[in-house]
Amino acid sequence: METISPIRLLIVDDEQEFTASLAKVLTRRGIAVHVCENGSAALDYLARHHADVVLLDIKMPGMDGEEVFIHLQRRWPDLPVIVLTGHGDIPQAFRMSKHGVVDYLPKPCHVDELYDHVQQAARERKTAARSVLQPEPPDPPAANDGEDKPNVLLVDDEPELLAGLVNVLERRGLAVRTAVSGEDALAVLADTWIDVVVIDIKMPGMSGLELLKRIRSERPDVEVLMLTGHPRVDDASEAIKLGAAYFLTKPFDTAELVMRIESAFHRRRQTFRRRQEEAIRSVFDRGMVD
Q: Which candidate, 53, 78, 83, 86, places its Cα nearest to that of 68?
């Protein structure tokens, strides 16, 4: 019978009472816990020992959590890192999630929720290690390469905001479509060439995050930007994990929105052209073999 090893969790946090209590609870649930009080100790520990998941605080003496995370990414890029902090903010959540943090949780966090996140991170790491072949994403519809401006879909349930954004973006030469719900947005995407979708998170019916999941599943070639008037760290983290290119809070600078749209558009075109070149190279290589 195969022996199942416990999940090995490294907690990096300088709050001794908190870590002692948390370690005690998680150990009772079958997780092997080791605690380091600062970033340097954590890096030394990982150089000699294995961990399945790291739980990382942000505010610590000496090296802060974001700096520790950078070192972890460089030396152990496949090691899942969960940030648990009472001092987080939206830009930091976006930045760290974009670069590989698997979860960004604000304190206080219920131990049941934390336990579930640790279990999920360990499972996903194990699945990734076993995975050899990844399925290719479906090919996007043919693009008109003669166009150098993005086709944009704005999704928001506020008609006044949509009307104002349409005027701004069209003056910049962008082709703009609008939708007032997630269902309307999916209908537009089903029969229209769209480069970038801009989605409000809070909408009645299908939420912005739910719509983002559907787009990543059904149209992974499309770039997505998220907007919100109710900024939450966990929303920002979730949006980036689901594949959003950027996360903007209302009220936002329209010049920045245009810049983010154009940046996402150029990234998408580069990906599309790279796939075209790879397909042509593949056909040529097969012809040489035949």
A: 83
pLDDT, tens digit, 9 for 90 and up, residues 77-130: 889 998 887 766 666 666 666 666 777 777 777 888 889 989 988 888 776 554
Sign of the CA dihedral 129, 133, 121, 271? positive
The b-or-e profile of 75-101 (16+ CB within 10 A means b, else e) is: ebeebbbbbbbeebebebbbebbbebb
Q: Which neighbouring-strand residues pair with 54?
A: 10, 81
Cα–Cα distances in Å, from 151 out to 66, 154, 194, 198, 265? 36, 10, 5, 11, 9
Nearest partner of 110 among 231, 233, 230, 26, judged by Cα: 26
DSSP summary character for residue 110 = -
Euclidean distance between CA atoms 242 and 246, whole angstroms: 11
Question: Which residues lie across from 53 on neighbouring strands?
Answer: 9
Which pair of structure tokens corresponds to residue 136? Answer: 């290719």
